[in-house]
Amino acid sequence: MSERPNILIFMTDQEQGQVVDPDHPCRTPNADRLAAEGVRFRHTYTPSPHCCPSRATFFTGLYPSRHGVYNNIFNSAAIHTALNPGVVTFGEGLRDAGYRLIFSGKWHVTAAANPADLGWEELITTSTAGTHHGRTIDDWRQAAAQPAEPGDRVRGHIQRPGWGDFVVYRTLPDAGPKGYEDLHDYQVVEKAVDALHDLKESDGPWVLYVGPVGPHDPFNVPQKYVDMYDPAQIDLPESYRDTLDDKPRLYQRMRRQFWDQLSEDEVRESIAHYWAFCTLEDAMLGEVLDALDETGQADNTLVIFLSDHGDYCGAHGLYLKGVPAFCEAYHVPCIARWPQGIVEPGRVVDAFVSLADFAPTFLEVAGIEPSADLSGRSLLPLLQGEIPADWPDAHYTQCNGVELYYSQRSVTTHDFKYVYNGFDFDELYDLRADPHEMVNRADDPAYAGIKKDLVAKMWRFAARENDIIFNPYGTVALAPWGPAEGLRS
To answer: Is 413-489 in the same CATH topology as 6-136+173-392?
Structure first.
């Protein structure tokens, strides 16, 4: 391995993994450029389908049951607002090893410490201590004092009496020749580009984290990027006509109460706006990569492009993330480039990768032995063209809801997916014949053995990660086979 590399992380927010696939109609030329010079990880997943737990996993290498962050840390429904005592982030290890840490963008990891408290130099930050997401009771009292919302539904909006409209998408006027000069994300990227020019004089290795907030909803995008896509030419998602009749009632309620307000033309327009947002973020990724090249630092810089979680964006007729457990919310893009450290650039890796794998990766490439107690494993062997024989053969998730609490766990192999729903009946999908998760086989006797094997895998992983789903009381012990069955096998 070469000398300790610099590390450049570009993490978007709520980007579907498939939008950067080579055959996907979303235009991401800079992600394609990065993949041609690096490694594309085709099966990268977040352990939890929303910001805080997924980002906490990325920074700590631990699953939510170990780091303690389960949902949004910045409102009164937070289960925990901070990482568990004793949990450390990869940045602290790199700082102690002599790395300079620079942070620009979204944090959303813990309310008890900002990046600067953990060794980072802050350029511009959001979702840090003191933030509040949502409205207070006083806010609602003020809203109640206003006249009721009149009129017809606005195109691209969801009407929610007493809550206010939910904006799904909107077209913004262009700002400057790039079209996005007045967006917050451009400020984040501009600061990062300036930092790269300063870092070329640095004596030691550095880590630069760039965290824009797009393509997070609402999909409000400048005209220049919206015009790149014709909604009339966009196909509805393969799963759009899923009735959800064989799936949890909560999924059905979300679709029928909210998202079915959108016409099929509006769904196509929403997808066009979402892809436009992804293309915009890709343009900003290109600005960062260009600056890295211009400053002569690319050869020994490990670049990681990824997201914290995805968005349904019309799949199964749904939007946003959280419960349900379909792949669009869990599958994230991931591309790595490191000219001095990657073997056979241009490869595609099909091994399962988790957001928990990045903290141990960063530590190992910096010459620090990662703790064997982490949930994740270093990706260094995969970067070097090897897949260890004991590499995980499944991906596992932990979701306890967002602001409403639902216990949900899932196990995904390359062939099957089992979802344990503590709030409703379970799901089982045969991914070989049903990659879009349309037909729930959980009650099909032909799949009983497969279901039992996946439940056993769930319990073994839950035991390893000290999960909180082991209570045997009659109102909560709802898995079809209990932990003794899984741990016995």
So the answer is: no
Q: Quick one: tokens of 49?
A: 């389908």
Domain 413-489 fold is: Arylsulfatase, C-terminal domain (3.30.1120)
The domain defined by 6-136+173-392 folds into Alkaline Phosphatase, subunit A (3.40.720)
Give the list of residues 6+ apart from residue 30 with CB closer than 8 angstroms, or none: 282, 283, 285, 286, 289
User: Residue 271: what are its φ and ψ, rounded to 5°?
Assistant: -65, -40
Q: What does the domain layout of the chain look like in residue ranges?
A: 6-136+173-392, 413-489
pTM comes to 0.97
- For the stretch 260-309, pLDDT in tens is 999 999 999 999 999 999 999 999 999 999 999 999 999 999 999 999 99
The token pair at 355 is 């957001």
Q: Summarize pLDDT for 7-53 with one digit per residue, the tens.
A: 999 999 999 999 999 999 999 999 999 999 999 999 999 999 999 99
Using CA atoms, how far residue 137 sits from 81, 141, 161, 345, in Å, is 20, 6, 17, 54
